[in-house]
Design goal:
The chain is α+β, with helices and mostly antiparallel strands. The protein has 2 domains: 4-250 and 407-431, no CATH class; 254-382, no CATH class. It is built from 16 helices and 21 strands. The chain has helices spanning 20-23, 33-40, 47-50, 57-71, 125-138, 157-163, 187-197, 208-224, 265-275, 287-290, 325-328, 331-343, 348-351, 363-371, 386-395, 427-430, and strands at residues 4-5, 10-12, 74-76, 82-89, 98-108, 117-118, 140-141, 145-149, 169-172, 178-184, 202-206, 236-243, 250-252, 255-258, 276-281, 297-302, 305-311, 357-360, 377-380, 405-407, 417-418. Strand 16 and strand 17 (305-311) form a beta hairpin. 41% of the residues are buried.
């Protein structure tokens, strides 16, 4: 099934090892404007490759990459390896330290119809185009996407646990997460990783836009290459793989903010009552608590007023989107169908790139943004479970965009993966 390969990663020179915390950055789609501007002040920070700025950002990133290579700011590891990546973290209200265990490798950029790599949510077209251009100009995967494989026997974990005892990097990131990177060079161990994944499907957990970029580039190069063999570097993509059976996988909710209602508030509230039981609430900071464990329930904060919304069960069968039942059952499908399409008149295809719609993981930030007038409406939702993700992936359908927030996010800057011919570890070389 899934073909993976070790890689010879490009990494910051060892003389910068002690500064690695100042060289890493959040992923392109979660870095805030304030974080971004602060990171740009360091001329060696990885954000200059992952979120380049200027009139020609992708071309500028390619020039900078070449400069860093020539000056020895980044160097390519001499041996191919599987890069073990552990993230240690805590969640509010819990004393437990969680650890998400995984490894970084190259993986074939499978087309969706091949049913090897399964997606679970829609992408936002403008964000995909940005990633395609960056990949075409730099031929570099600047950060790994996140995939899930299923291994109930945890065959690979002993090798990862052994490797992580001698880390390359150990640092605390912008999330307060302790990130640790190590590498496995042992040929027999690498072969076990390759064989284990060869029997697996992979669920794409995070990084749909970056994966779509790699997939687009692979299709383009296949069309241009009459001697295509399926083993060229452009066929591959950088991915962080974790075991879906591990207890420490966490998915956090992603809430919705609407800058401005396309109708008067009074009309909106009246129309909501056609589909929902609408209950006013005193304290907006309890909206996330009053919906916990309740299907098709949402918190709503509208211009200083808090409400709990609960879909009337009898209207649920009226969802006429051509989705399997696994998708229709999701809270976010209910939200996007009844609130955005039926009530607000923002149809499904428009929703993917609707200018007034934004996404926020932090619950209190949602309340704060409405209070500050940055948004008129906040819709608070429950998290999606791992089982729901699996069911949707296996159904062949996708969730609404920004349905899941796998926590913590991987960081950018620990390593980079080149798809240049002379910098790539091929399948033949990996098996030597």
């Amino acid at each position: 099934m899934a073909e993976i390969l070790p890689l010879r990663a490009w990494r910051y020179t060892d003389t910068l090892k002690d500064q690695i915390e100042q060289l890493t950055s959040p992923l392109f789609d979660v870095v805030s404007e304030k974080q971004r501007e602060a990171l740009y002040q360091n001329p060696l920070n990885s954000i200059h490759l992952s979120v380049p700025r200027g009139d020609n950002p992708a071309q500028d990133a390619a020039l900078l990459l070449q400069e860093w290579k020539e000056k020895g700011i980044i160097l390519q590891d001499g041996l191919p390896g599987i890069y073990v990546y552990y993230q240690y973290f805590r969640l509010p209200g819990s004393d437990k330290e969680y650890v998400r265990k995984g490894f970084i490798c190259n993986i074939k950029a499978y087309d969706w119809h091949e049913k090897v790599l399964l997606r679970h949510e829609n992408t936002i077209p403008s964000a995909v185009n940005d990633r395609i251009e960056l990949l075409e100009e730099t031929l570099l995967n600047v950060s790994p996407t996140h995939g899930l494989y299923t291994d109930a026997e945890f065959l690979l974990e002993p090798y990862m646990d052994e490797s992580i005892r001698t880390p390359i990097y150990e640092t605390e990131d912008y999330q307060g997460v302790r990130d640790v990177l190590a590498v496995i060079h042992d040929h027999a161990a690498i072969e076990l990783f390759l064989q284990t994944l060869a029997e697996k499907q992979v669920l794409l957990a995070d990084g749909h836009h970056r994966y779509e970029g790699s997939l687009f580039y692979r299709r383009k190069m296949m069309a241009e290459n009459p001697n295509h063999t399926d083993f060229e570097p452009y066929n591959y993509h950088l991915m962080y793989l974790t075991n879906s059976e591990h207890d420490d996988l966490r998915i956090l909710p992603t809430h919705r903010l609407l800058k401005q209602l396309p109708m008067p508030e009074e009309e909106f509230l009246e129309r909501l009552q056609e589909y929902f039981t609408v209950t006013p609430k005193e304290d907006p900071y309890e909206l996330n608590e009053v919906i916990v464990g309740k299907p098709w329930a949402f918190g709503m904060y509208l211009n200083g007023n808090a409400y709990k919304l609960r879909l009337k069960p009898e209207v649920h069968p009226s969802i006429d989107w051509n989705f399997p039942e696994e998708v229709k059952q999701l809270d976010l499908t209910v939200m996007h169908y009844f609130i955005f399409e039926k009530i607000l008149g923002i149809y499904r295809q428009q929703q993917r790139d609707y200018k007034g719609l934004s996404y926020e993981r932090n619950f209190t930030a949602c309340i704060r943004k409405v209070d500050k007038g940055e948004a008129q409406l906040a819709l608070i939702t429950n998290e999606i479970s791992m089982e729901q993700v699996k069911r949707v992936c296996n159904s062949g359908a996708v969730m609404p965009q920004k349905s899941t927030f796998f926590y913590p996010k991987v960081i950018c800057g620990f390593l980079f993966s080149s798809i240049k011919e002379d910098e790539f570890t091929t399948a033949a070389a990996a098996c030597l």
